[in-house]
Amino acid sequence: MFEVRNGSQERIHNTLIARLVKALCQGGRLVGIIGGSDSHTLRRLGRTYTVCPATSREEFLQAIRAGRSQVYGAHSNHLSLAADIYGVVLRYYPAVFSVGNRELPAGVRVRNIFLSILAAPFLFMPYVSAMRHSFIEHSRITEFAQILASQKCPPLVAREAE
Fold this sequence. Notes:
mainly alpha, two-stranded parallel sheet, two-stranded antiparallel sheet, 6 helices, 4 strands, about 10% strand
């Protein structure tokens, strides 16, 4: 079973995985495919998913194993990654600045408010980090796809148990 679409990965990554799985299937191997949102925030929960003809959990898993599943949904990009990071980071501020929040002792709250004000100029960093991650990931996937295309490595072949 292979995850051919991960909602937290960029299209180039998911496309490469799908191509590798397709090559495996062309070699005569039956492969189950799945997709998932891999969401760490509620914003993307369930936006990438697996569909199978089934009416129960057991039938669903059996359909995946039999290669009768399909995947749908969104891919990620630097904007959605940055939005996820900001979603987590910016949830911190209401917790610190909320007077009604009794989770933080007064001394800790004052310290955290002070540190939050000092850190405010750096709130652009999640976007920079997301851009850098996307650039590096795109470069790695492109390089790996080129290596596979040039046959510098052995072809992907399913090996039978000996």
